[in-house]
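// run 5 | inverse folding | seed 20
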């Protein structure tokens, strides 16, 4: 019997490849990183921003997810940089592993590189053949004002 355990390094590689190729608009590579039945969700933590329609998604299936990703990326700034950090595994099942991480997003303005957004990312990576692909990706953009931890 072959060990099908998904290791954190494989998930880090897949997530890193996802953000790099998303930023660069390499849509064929992005599509190849998704399972056929992928579920993609994107939203803000408050649901009250002026850009809710632009960021909100709840899409299933590789083709529909890619249609949303292509439109969203095409309508976003370039260069845009998603910095995925703290990728770690939160659960294991047969050929799947759940993960959580942060992203920090920057873009360039006339005055230099500026912060655009940050988010919590949760997902599931699934082994399909020899590849580790994304089967769930949920991005929750940080839009609420920070308060003391004890007051949240």
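// decoded
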């Amino acid at each position: 019997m072959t060990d099908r355990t998904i290791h954190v390094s494989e998930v880090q590689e897949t997530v890193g490849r996802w953000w790099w190729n998303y930023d660069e608009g390499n849509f064929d590579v992005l599509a190849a990183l998704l399972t056929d039945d992928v579920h993609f969700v994107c939203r803000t933590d408050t649901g009250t921003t002026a850009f809710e329609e632009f960021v909100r998604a709840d899409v299933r299936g590789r083709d529909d997810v890619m249609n949303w990703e292509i439109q969203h990326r095409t309508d976003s700034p370039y260069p845009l940089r998603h910095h995925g950090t703290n990728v770690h595994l939160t659960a294991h099942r047969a050929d799947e592993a759940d993960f959580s991480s942060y992203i920090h997003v920057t873009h360039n303005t006339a005055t230099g590189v500026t912060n655009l957004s940050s988010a919590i990312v949760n997902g599931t990576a699934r082994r399909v053949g020899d590849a580790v692909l994304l089967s769930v990706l949920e991005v929750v953009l940080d839009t609420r004002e920070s308060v003391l931890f004890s007051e949240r």
